[in-house]
């Protein structure tokens, strides 16, 4: 299966993340599933006129390929011309290249939240870059390719959202496509692969005991739950970050940083500081996705009244200050 990769308006972080693929080196992992790059701007040898000729051959059908992966937002500016981002040496907007190549590809993948939904490039007030995603403009269908776009393989754009996208999400989705096939039933309502988006970041969080008792951290060095005061959106974000860890062991929450829901449309402009939890009458606005507000309030009152001293004291410390009690097992 041949993959063509382009980079548009973004930081290149998804490629940097991809290079950290595990357990085997990236190219060994892909090669094992019969996957190879036709071209990647940062990983391939071809550059300059040679790369441009290769892209032209792909666009006119002379060089066949299967998957078009695009990283970075689509930049329409200024005034719809696309001239904010020209393909070097061609004098033509990258958006035009993407449209041509998408018509040739059997499948189109948006790598990262910028390409999926517009991301940070679209978040500046007024959006002067006129940035959008491949098939979404924020949380609204549309984008560069339009709401009705379907690649020749029968799927709309596959949105491997994240900022950056976890290397496992990219590699596993490519491998599933190559070995088992990918269907519409494998994607959620936003076009994200269910292999990572059917879970919430909250699942597997090392702070879940504190969440259950609503024992909240007051500062980022504390061990307690980060949802009530410090902006954590792990109960709303669709990803498996605490189950499929980063670099073998880490996640934002394990490192003491609140989840900012980087797999969700519009995460980059929440309307408040990332590390603060907006509240109304003391109740966090961002409640878990499937919990009614009244239930949350009732559960919070009950949980806080039953919080063990160990959990309450450890929640506002940077290391465990009270160990779990040791008791003889009951007979």
UniProtKB/TrEMBL annotation:
One GO CC annotation: cell envelope
The UniProt GO MF terms for this protein read: 3 iron, 4 sulfur cluster binding; 4 iron, 4 sulfur cluster binding; electron transfer activity; ferredoxin hydrogenase activity; hydrogenase (acceptor) activity; metal ion binding
Q: Domain named NADH:ubiquinone oxidoreductase-like 20kDa subunit: which ranges?
A: 11-177
Predominant localisation class: other
Which cofactors, by name? Answer: [4Fe-4S] cluster; [3Fe-4S] cluster
Query: Which species is the source of this protein?
Result: Candidatus Dechloromonas phosphorivorans
Any idea which positions bind [4Fe-4S] cluster 2? 202, 205, 225, 232
Cellular localization per UniProt: Cell envelope
To which protein family does this belong? Belongs to the [NiFe]/[NiFeSe] hydrogenase small subunit family.
Q: One short Pfam family name for this protein?
A: Oxidored_q6
Q: What protein name is recorded for this chain? A: hydrogenase (acceptor)
EC code(s) of this entry: 1.12.99.6
The record's SUPFAM superfamilies line, in alphabetical order, gives:
HydA/Nqo6-like
Q: How does it assemble?
A: Heterodimer of a large and a small subunit.
Q: A GO BP term, please?
A: anaerobic respiration
Q: Which reaction does it catalyse?
A: H2 + A = AH2
- Binding locations of [3Fe-4S] cluster: 241, 259, 262
Q: Where is the signal peptide?
A: none
């Amino acid at each position: 299966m041949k993959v063509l990769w382009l980079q548009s308006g973004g930081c290149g972080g998804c490629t940097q993340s991809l290079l950290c693929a595990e357990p085997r080196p990236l190219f060994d992992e892909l090669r094992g599933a019969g996957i190879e790059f036709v071209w990647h701007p940062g990983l391939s040898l071809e550059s300059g006129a040679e790369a441009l000729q290769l892209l032209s051959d792909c666009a006119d059908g002379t060089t066949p390929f299967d998957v078009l992966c695009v990283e970075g937002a689509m930049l329409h500016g200024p005034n719809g011309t696309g001239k904010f981002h020209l393909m070097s040496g061609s004098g033509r907007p990258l958006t035009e290249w993407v449209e041509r190549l998408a018509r040739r590809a059997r499948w189109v993948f948006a790598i990262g939240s910028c390409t999926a939904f517009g991301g940070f490039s679209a978040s500046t007030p007024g959006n002067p870059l006129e940035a959008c995603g491949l098939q979404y403009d924020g949380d609204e269908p549309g984008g560069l390719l339009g709401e009705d776009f379907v690649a020749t393989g029968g799927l709309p754009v596959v949105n491997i959202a994240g900022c950056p996208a976890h290397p496992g999400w990219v590699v596993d989705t490519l491998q599933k496509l190559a070995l088992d096939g990918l269907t519409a039933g494998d994607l959620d309502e936003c076009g994200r692969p269910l292999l990572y988006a059917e879970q919430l970041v909250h699942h597997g969080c090392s702070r879940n005991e504190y969440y259950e008792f609503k024992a909240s951290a007051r500062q980022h060095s504390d061990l307690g739950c980060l949802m009530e005061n410090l902006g954590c959106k792990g109960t709303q974000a669709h990803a498996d970050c605490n189950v499929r860890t980063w670099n073998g062991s880490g996640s934002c929450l394990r490192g003491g940083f609140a989840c900012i829901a980087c797999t969700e449309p519009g995460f980059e402009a929440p309307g408040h500081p990332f590390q603060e939890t907006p509240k109304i009458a003391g109740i966090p606005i961002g409640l878990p996705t499937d919990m009614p507000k009244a239930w949350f309030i009732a559960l919070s009152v009950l949980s806080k009244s039953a919080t063990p001293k160990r959990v309450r004291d450890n929640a506002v410390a940077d290391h465990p200050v009270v160990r779990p009690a040791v008791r003889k097992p009951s007979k």
